[in-house]
Design a protein that fits this description.
Order of helices and strands: EEEEEEEEEEEEEE
Shape: elongated
Strand order of the largest sheet: 1-2-3-4-5-6-7
Radius of gyration: 22 Å
Structural class: mainly beta
């Protein structure tokens, strides 16, 4: 079957009663998937899968786990959330390599300014936080525990004073 290129609004392979849902050619060697007349997913020539505005790079067919999950967004918003639900809701970082230096990393990158014009962090800049919340009374609680790293002095060339903080909520506090 050879089809025209189509578009996200008018995919070349669609359904008679739902013409905004289907497959189209998003670019050279790029397969696009649309729903409600908008592109929702694509697969490029390298096997990279893009979902929404995020990116999941699978690599070789059948490889597990995916090597990258990147929302591709620069503003913290609900679209930057990886939601795990169901019975198997653990997030695992797995690094498999035959070398002794194999590891799984979580990197927090922090700069002042904007993505197009990053600026140096300052003496009290929070570099990263990990927060815990519990579900109680119909909603998720405010932060009940936090681990964080903050600049603890003026940074300079090869001089990055930082502090690691562990914050918890005592019983009876809010």
């Amino acid at each position: 079957i050879i089809m025209s290129d189509g578009s996200s609004a008018n995919p070349s392979y669609s359904f008679s009663y739902n013409t905004g849902l289907g497959l189209f050619r998003a670019g050279a060697d790029i397969l696009g998937f649309s729903a409600a007349g908008s592109e929702r997913m694509r697969i490029d020539a390298n096997g990279n899968v893009y979902v929404g505005q995020g990116r999941v790079i699978i690599g070789d067919i059948g490889s597990f786990p995916p090597s990258t999950f990147d929302t591709g967004r620069t503003n913290p918003d609900p679209g930057n959330t990886l939601i795990l639900s169901g019975a198997n809701r653990d997030l695992a970082l797995v690094s498999m390599d035959t070398s002794d230096g194999a590891k799984a990393d979580i990197d927090f990158f922090r700069a002042k300014g904007s993505p197009s014009s990053p600026a140096n962090v300052l003496s009290t800049t929070q570099l990263g936080l990990i927060n815990w919340r519990g579900y109680y009374g119909g909603s998720f609680t405010p932060r009940i525990a936090t681990m964080g790293v903050t600049m603890d002095g003026t940074p300079g060339v090869n001089d990055y004073p930082t502090r690691f903080e562990f914050l918890t909520t005592p019983d009876g506090s809010s």
